[in-house]
Amino acid sequence: MHRSLKGTVPLLVAVGLNYLAQIPYYIHQYYIPRHRLPAWPGSLLLLLTLLWFLAGYIRFIRGQKYGAGLLLSFLAAQILFYGHAIVFGLINGSGIVAQLTTHSPFLLVIFLIGYINFAVAAYYVMRLLQVKRGTVSSGG
Questions:
Q1: In 3D, which of 126, 113, 41, 19 has the Cα closest to residue 76?
Q2: Which of 34, 97, 107, 130 could hold 136 in an S-S bridge, CB 3.0 to 4.6 Å?
Q3: Greater confidence, 59 or 6?
Q4: How far apart are CA 94 and CA 17, in angstroms?
């Protein structure tokens, strides 16, 4: 495991839960009301981003070349994605405020998983940048 950043399990759990949550979310929002199968471009994009994360994460924890860069780029993309949703949702009167006041406990859990994922991604970007600058001790 990479000596400079221990405790990446919360990152793995948050990202894994976020990807897993996409399955019941899709079924609830799209399949049940319309019986429509997922479009292949969206499914392919979801798969590619998962592979992007896994490549960066595995290379990082093994201390391999490009691991930190791949992981940082994935996390930055997540922050931009959720940040965009938050900012434009607030501008349009929807987004995080509307999502977290939903009357559906199911959707509330799905949305919370996404926003927790956003916070975890932001935390690990800061940690990874500290590691790259050498400001995190090997114990921490």
A1: 126
A2: 130
A3: 59
A4: 24
Is the separation of the CB atoms in 63 and 2 below 8 Å?
Answer: yes
Distances (CA, A) of 116 to 30, 88, 112: 23, 18, 6
Amino acid at position 118, single letter: F
User: Mapping DSSP to helix (H, G, I), strand (E, B) and coil, where does residue 5 land?
Assistant: coil
Cα separation, 49 vs 28, whole angstroms: 22
Query: Cβ-count burial of 55 within 10 angstroms (0-12 exposed, 13-18 middle, 19+ buried)?
Result: middle
Q: Rounded CA gap, 111 and 117, in Å?
A: 10
Band (5; pLDDT cuts 50, 70, 90): low
Tokens 């800061």 -> residue: 126
